[in-house]
Design goal:
With about 220 residues, the chain is an alpha+beta fold. It is built from four helices and eight strands, in the order αβββαββββαβα.
Length: about 220
């Protein structure tokens, strides 16, 4: 596989597991990943990412175990990262910009403002499926610190799209993000919204969320 092919964002494939759709990204060469997903979160190399639709009343007490079961059904090997959402993943919107790609499932049925004095906290150990899930691919290697910075850039771009659309919140309390990049090459040092990678990623996420807000379907609102 050529260096250019290694840096081409992998396409998602649609599968059905347990009667529900899911999107799977499988990497021929493991990619460096930062993830806030319930399964395979944190920093490290990953062989795959999945975003699976679950019922809006999802109440399994073991979401990590559930994702592991899904991975087993698909025959996935190696470390991966798995997200869950009440949005039908067939309504995912993908946007690209300068070699960067963002695939976002957008649902805003319960928007929240991040800072809220009277907000109730989610009980420890309770998992609610992610509502706005973003899976993002960058064509160049980034430092680990830059990957973390890109998570913030994704959040800023998402919030900008929500505010511009008149959504009363900065997101939902269950949003999740995965950002991946090649694990080799000279690393970019910055991931902010004016950096070489962060600027196009911000535009891609903004466009994907803006378009996703216009999609009707279960879990969308």
């Amino acid at each position: 596989m050529s260096p250019a092919e290694r840096r081409r964002p992998p396409a998602a494939t649609l599968h059905t597991v347990e009667g529900a759709p899911l999107l799977l990204w499988w990497f021929p060469t493991p990619l460096l990943t930062v993830s806030s997903a319930v399964y395979g979160g944190g920093l490290g190399t990953r062989h795959w990412v999945l975003n699976a639709t679950v019922p809006s009343g999802y109440d399994r007490p073991d979401p990590e175990g559930h994702v592991a079961e899904i991975a087993g059904e698909l025959g996935l090997d190696g470390a991966g990262s798995g997200l869950l959402t009440a949005v039908d993943v067939r309504h995912e919107v993908t946007a690209t910009d300068s070699g960067v790609r963002a695939g976002v499932t957008t649902g805003v049925g319960q928007p929240v403002w991040a800072a809220h004095e009277g907000a109730e906290l989610t009980p420890s150990g309770v998992h609610v499926p992610g509502t706005i899930n973003a899976v993002c691919f960058c064509p160049v290697r980034l430092k680990e610190s830059a990957l973390v910075n890109l998570v913030a850039t994704v959040a800023e771009a998402k919030t900008q799209a929500l505010v511009e659309a008149g959504v009363p919140g900065t997101g939902t309390c269950t949003d999740a993000t995965v950002v991946v990049c090649p694990a080799d090459g000279d690393p970019e040092s910055y991931g902010g919204p004016r950096s070489a990678v962060g600027a196009p990623l911000a535009r891609a996420v903004h466009r994907a969320v803006s378009e996703g807000l216009r999609v009707d379907g279960p879990g969308r609102s």
